[in-house]
Specification:
Rossmann fold; about 475 residues; single chain; alpha+beta; 4-stranded antiparallel β-sheet; 3 domains
Length: about 475
């Protein structure tokens, strides 16, 4: 099996870069924590669009970071484990290089991929127009079963391709005036479509029900599909519907989307999607990316998801699991701490020239990353990391010591000064003299105050313009002293 060993991103959406995500020479799974706005969705789309570019679906220029220099086009580069199916170990998608990914292994990977976010789950609860029922026809045909082949076709054709052909001929645009050629042949294809889809829905429902049972709910569901009908006089297709019906505690729930709570609805949706991923065509490269798709589940109901992903059916996938929930992240991180197939990292939101950029952190501390960028003469990136280190230290100290900060209705308006003012003049007991003494020495306070004027701007909200190297060096040193003092 092929695995991704490194992801390189530059000037794609919120990523300024160049950013690198190292997954090891064997291609590990990745657990990422990131608050909203930290760049998780940009990473999600970087991988998704890279794969889909193999089928000509996207143009890199449509997603280039709007704040980047127009002469610096940017790129997404994926490095892979050596494999006979690939003629090299790194492939690039950029404005300058559009055809590098258009090879069979990448096309196969795009068709076999699994990408899931909370918006996808909501689609399993959309009402059928004009009826009080959930119709998942479009979701299944155009998304979940899009690349799944109809076993009853020859040559084998995916449900999406077959439906596109049938609907394009039997239900043409209103302005079309041409007569339908070989209507009998098209009606035969419609019958094959209906028959094949009905059989596949049985497989999908059986697998989804098995997965749903792992959540511990007494819920059963099935897909009701009576087949698409064709009206020759109107030249229209009717009954394009696959209704999702649910039983709870052996009772039919007519409006399950209204009756069941969010956790049960999320469990049903996850079960359908995970079952659908198992039906995808085979590929040497199988990627499963989940971006905050578990927000409808409480912590106890998220654990079964980890058990599902640990099963043999998902062993072939390289999994990237992203969450904004710190508690869940720490729980999974602890659970996977001895699993060499997994690594953990974090995304934070920094600012450069007044706009937000993702700050990717793994293994190394913020200060270590700051020094790396200083040595590479990337002063803007250095400033972002040293500021992030400073903020993490003072906020971490206040949290550890249960020091309350000024209340703000919007937590995003919290200023680093809200934390710093509580620390800089703080007094602590002196066991030697029985008198209070300063937590921080005045020399250190003055050093931090000086750095705050230039480099350590509150919560990374200030612009970075031509920061001298000496100021960055002094700021790093000041934050290192502060870290030692508050340890």
């Amino acid at each position: 099996m092929v695995k991704i060993t490194k992801i390189e991103i530059k000037n794609f959406k919120t990523f300024r870069g160049p950013d690198q995500i190292d997954l090891g020479n064997k291609g590990r799974n990745l657990l990422i924590y990131g608050e909203n706005g930290s760049g998780k969705t940009s990473l999600y789309e970087a991988l998704k669009f890279f794969l889909e570019s193999s089928e000509g679906t996207h143009q890199f220029g449509d997603y280039r970071n709007i704040f980047s220099d127009e002469t610096d086009k940017g790129y997404i580069k994926l490095h892979f484990t050596p494999d006979p199916s690939l003629n090299k170990e790194m492939y690039e998608w950029s404005e300058n290089i559009q055809n590098d990914t258009k090879i069979k292994p990448m096309i196969d990977a795009s068709k076999a991929k699994g990408f899931l976010d909370y918006k996808d789950l909501l689609k399993t609860n959309y009402l059928h127009h004009g009826k009080n029922s959930v119709n998942v026809f479009d979701l299944l045909i155009n998304t979940l079963l899009k690349n799944v082949e109809n076993d009853q076709t020859f040559p084998r054709t995916s449900f999406s391709e077959q439906w596109m052909s049938i609907s394009g001929i039997l239900s043409p645009d209103e302005n079309a005036e041409q007569q339908i050629e070989n209507p009998e042949e098209q009606l035969e294809q419609l019958q094959i479509f209906n028959s094949g889809l009905a059989a596949k829905l049985v497989d999908l429902a059986a697998e989804a029900s098995k997965i749903l049972g792992k959540f511990g709910y007494n819920i059963d569901f099935k897909f009701v599909f009576h087949g698409v009908r064709y009206n020759s006089q109107e030249q229209k297709l009717y009954d394009t519907e696959i209704l999702l019906t649910v039983k709870f505690l052996d009772e039919d729930i007519r409006s399950h989307h209204r009756f069941l709570n969010e956790a049960k609805l999320s469990a049903i949706a996850l079960s359908i999607f995970f079952a659908g991923f198992k039906l995808q065509p085979d590929s040497d490269l199988k990627i499963l990316v989940i971006d905050d798709a578990l927000i409808g589940l409480d912590l106890s109901n998220r654990l079964p998801v980890l058990d599902i992903l640990d099963e043999r059916d998902f062993a072939k996938y390289q999994i990237i699991l992203m969450t904004y929930d710190r508690i869940f992240y720490e729980m999974v991180k602890k659970r996977k701490s001895e699993d060499k197939k997994w690594k953990a990292a974090e995304l934070y939101c920094g600012k450069v020239d007044g706009y937000e950029i993702p700050v990717y952190v793994e293994d190394k501390t913020y200060l270590e990353r700051a020094r790396e960028y200083l040595d590479a003469n990337d002063y803007k990136a250095c400033a972002v990391y040293v500021r992030t280190a400073y903020e993490a230290i003072i906020k971490g100290y206040c949290e550890k010591k249960n020091i309350g900060v000024k209340y703000r209705e919007n937590v995003n308006e919290l200023d680093s000064n809200d934390f710093w003012t509580l620390i800089k003049d703080k007094k602590i007991p002196d066991p030697k003299s029985n008198k209070p003494k300063r937590l921080l020495k005045l020399a250190l306070v003055k050093k931090i105050e000086l750095a705050r004027k230039f480099t350590l701007n509150p919560l990374s909200h200030a612009n970075i313009v031509n920061i001298p190297r000496k100021e960055l060096e002094d700021a790093i040193e000041a934050v290192e002293w502060l870290e030692d003092a508050l340890a």
